[in-house]
User: Fold this.
Amino acid sequence: MKKNTKRILSVVLSLMMMLPILTVGAMSVQAKTFVISTPEQFKNINWKNAGYGPGHTYKIGNDFTLGDNDEATCRLTKGNFTIDFNGHTVQNANNALTVIHVSGANVVLKDSKASDSKFSVRSYGAGAVQITSGTLTILNGNYGGLSDGTNNPSALHVGGGTCNVNGGFFYGETIGASCAGGTMRINNGATFRTAYMFALENFGGNIRISRANFISGTTTYGGQFAIGAYAPQSTYNFNTWLVSGSAFSPSFQTGYWNGQSQLSATPFYASMYAVAYNTPTLKVTSNVKAPAPTALNKLTAPKKKQLKATWKKKTGGVSGYELQLATNKGFTKNKKTVVISKNTAKSKTVKGLKAKKKYYVRIRTYRNFNGTKYYSKWSKLKTKKTK
Assistant:
C-alpha cells in the first residue's frame, strides 16, 4: 500500500513539475521557418506548429500543383503564421475552387523572390486566395485566377474577415479581386488587372482604398470597367471606398451598366452594376505622407538573452515604432519584430533572444491613419552580442 501511495505521489509530482514547463514553453516558443516542398505538406500547414506563440514562416521550396478537387485547398483555421512563396508557384488543377482559404487564422502572404513573369499562387477556379474569417495580410507577390472553362476566376476573393493588401499584383481572367463581405483595405500601391469585366468588384463588402492601380479588360459589349459594384441605379458612390486623403485619377468616370440589357429585359436584371465606365486604367493616389524616420542611439545587453534599444523620440505625425532584430543582415534568421504603440517611448528591452549571439537591429516609425498603417524607412543597422 505504501509503495502504491509513493508511486501515485511520484506521478502527481512529476505532472505538477511538468505543467509550468509546458506553460512556459508554449509562451516562450520562438518563431521558426519550415520549408514546404510537397503539396501534402502545403495542405497541412494549418496543424503543423500553429495555434500558439509567435507566427512561424512556411517557405515554399518547389513549384508544385495541388489536386483537382476542393479537398486540395490549404484551409487555414487557426494559428499565426507567414507563407513565403520564395519565387515558386503553388497552383491547383482544374475544378479546384481555390488554393489558399483563410478561415479563422491570422495569415501573412509574401514572396521574398517575387518575379513579374511568374505567379506566386495560380488558380484554375473561382479564386487563387480567399478569406471568409480571420485576418489576411498580403505584402507582395503575384496572384492569378485563370479560367478552367467552367468558373469565373479571380485572384483574390474576400467573403469575410479582414484582408489587408499592402502590395502585390492580382490578375483574374474575369475579375482581378472581389469583395462580398468583411473588410478589404488596399493600402500601398497594389495592382489589380482583368482580361474581362472588373479589376475590382464589390457586392457586399467594406472596401477602403489608400493607393492602388486598376486595369480593366474589354467586355463583350465593348465597355471597359476598372471597378464595379452590384447596386441599384443612381444609389452608389465610389468615393465611399476612398480613405481620407486619397483620390481617383482625373480620367475616372462613373455610370451604370446592365450586362444583359442588350439581350434581355426581364425583372431579374433590374439591378445594375455601378462601374468606372470606359476607364481602361484607374489610379488611386494619396497625399498622406509617411512619418519621419528615427534612428537608433545605442544597444546594450542588460541581462542574459536580452537587448535594450534606445532611439530618438518622434511625436509629430508618428503613432509608434516597430523594432526588428535578427541574427543576419537580411533579417531572415531568428527574426523578432516588436511593436511599440506609444510615440513617446524612447527605449525597449527585448527578452527571449538567443544567448551569446550577434544581433542586427533596426527601427522605423509608423503612423495610423483611417485604419491604414504608413511606415517610415528603416534606420541604419546597429549590432550587439547578447550575454
Q: What stands out?
A: The radius of gyration is 25 Å.
